[in-house]
């Protein structure tokens, strides 16, 4: 796995070429810094699409999930996160909740979310895949590049040069 650049250094070097997510997401996974090409899903209180996507080869990509900011139910837990890690996903960013947080801390996957709730989500498959999603003052476009560390999340149309 390639070394992940520090988001603060990226902002210093590239400034306005990068968008910086203003939403204050918490770290949950064992991988504290991660980067990759964005795949998106929008779903509110229903994780069927999240589970399906993370069960496919990740190829170092990052899944950005817009759960509408709902903390009513979790969109990912330890079983789905473990599947994502096995399938080679670099990380998951969730504008919503996760569960099984003690277990998530030991899974080699970048995981950021608003918070946690032990309640399961629905499983109807409601939502959309590979559509632009927006939160925290950033539009996350499918195919764009994301970098995340303890300082936050930055996004660019493509990975900036060194």
UniProtKB/TrEMBL annotation:
This is 4-hydroxy-4-methyl-2-oxoglutarate aldolase. Catalyzes the aldol cleavage of 4-hydroxy-4-methyl-2-oxoglutarate (HMG) into 2 molecules of pyruvate. Also contains a secondary oxaloacetate (OAA) decarboxylase activity due to the common pyruvate enolate transition state formed following C-C bond cleavage in the retro-aldol and decarboxylation reactions. GO terms for molecular function: 4-hydroxy-4-methyl-2-oxoglutarate aldolase activity; metal ion binding; oxaloacetate decarboxylase activity; ribonuclease inhibitor activity. Its EC number is 4.1.1.112, 4.1.3.17. The keyword Repeat does not apply. It catalyses: oxaloacetate + H(+) = pyruvate + CO2; 4-hydroxy-4-methyl-2-oxoglutarate = 2 pyruvate. Its cofactor is Mg(2+); a divalent metal cation. Keywords: Lyase, Magnesium, Metal-binding. Substrate binds at residues 77-80, 99. The keyword Hydrolase does not apply. GO terms for biological process: regulation of RNA metabolic process. The lineage of its organism: Bacteria, Bacillati, Actinomycetota, Actinomycetes, Streptosporangiales. Belongs to the class II aldolase/RraA-like family. PANTHER family: 4-HYDROXY-4-METHYL-2-OXOGLUTARATE ALDOLASE 3-RELATED.
